[in-house]
Amino acid sequence: MLDMLRWFASTQIRNVAAVAGNIATASPISDMNPVLMALGATVVLGAAGAPPREVPLRDFFKRYRTVDMQPHELICCVRVPDTQGPYEFVRSFKQAKRRDDDISIVNACLRVRLRPSAGGWTIDEVSSAFGGMAPTTSRAKLMEAALQGKEWSEASFDRGYAALAEDLPLPEVVPGGMAAYRQTLAASFVYKFFVGVSVELARLAARGPQ
């Protein structure tokens, strides 16, 4: 989350921005919503005279710029679960036309929890969220299902890339254009995630038991 905030808007905007406002505006290229969704965040909504209700962020975005929130409700808080143990990894990604102070073309966040298995690692839990690939921030459910319970390996991720193409199809004529480029960006983020976590696993193995 902190890593993505480095590239979120500008210093002046960050000084006055609110997390709840960024969520509620439901921009399909929001930089924070993919991170919060992949982490399993929930929003707690409140209204005068009514008990609060809690909505998982993955269910909060209904369609373009529309959320599961009534006109009389406010976002009271955002709950973000802690990561569990040394083998849970989260990475966020953003590609824009400029490095600083620019909206995303595509962004993403991926999270995985691994467990040691014979000769390697098994994917116990995986979640993902992408911006700029649909009218709302979206999970790649087919990719997650293709990876869940599988060995942490290039072969598993090859199947994941194929599923991702089905999760996030873009027509040639799409708002914002650059359909093929955006699909390539989404796949490249998944590849960077695989490489980055693999490097971290190698470092952990080199240190030995802690």
UniProtKB/TrEMBL annotation:
<dbReference type="InterPro" id="IPR036318">
    <property type="entry name" value="FAD-bd_PCMH-like_sf"/>
</dbReference>
<dbReference type="Pfam" id="PF00941">
    <property type="entry name" value="FAD_binding_5"/>
</dbReference>
<dbReference type="InterPro" id="IPR005107">
    <property type="entry name" value="CO_DH_flav_C"/>
</dbReference>
<feature type="domain" description="FAD-binding PCMH-type">
    <location>
        <begin position="1"/>
        <end position="85"/>
    </location>
</feature>
<protein>
    <recommendedName>
        <fullName>FAD-binding PCMH-type domain-containing protein</fullName>
    </recommendedName>
</protein>
<dbReference type="InterPro" id="IPR016208">
    <property type="entry name" value="Ald_Oxase/xanthine_DH-like"/>
</dbReference>
<dbReference type="Pfam" id="PF03450">
    <property type="entry name" value="CO_deh_flav_C"/>
</dbReference>
<dbReference type="GO" id="GO:0071949">
    <property type="term" value="F:FAD binding"/>
</dbReference>
<dbReference type="GO" id="GO:0016491">
    <property type="term" value="F:oxidoreductase activity"/>
</dbReference>
<dbReference type="InterPro" id="IPR016169">
    <property type="entry name" value="FAD-bd_PCMH_sub2"/>
</dbReference>
<dbReference type="InterPro" id="IPR002346">
    <property type="entry name" value="Mopterin_DH_FAD-bd"/>
</dbReference>
<dbReference type="InterPro" id="IPR016166">
    <property type="entry name" value="FAD-bd_PCMH"/>
</dbReference>
<dbReference type="GO" id="GO:0005506">
    <property type="term" value="F:iron ion binding"/>
</dbReference>
<dbReference type="InterPro" id="IPR036683">
    <property type="entry name" value="CO_DH_flav_C_dom_sf"/>
</dbReference>
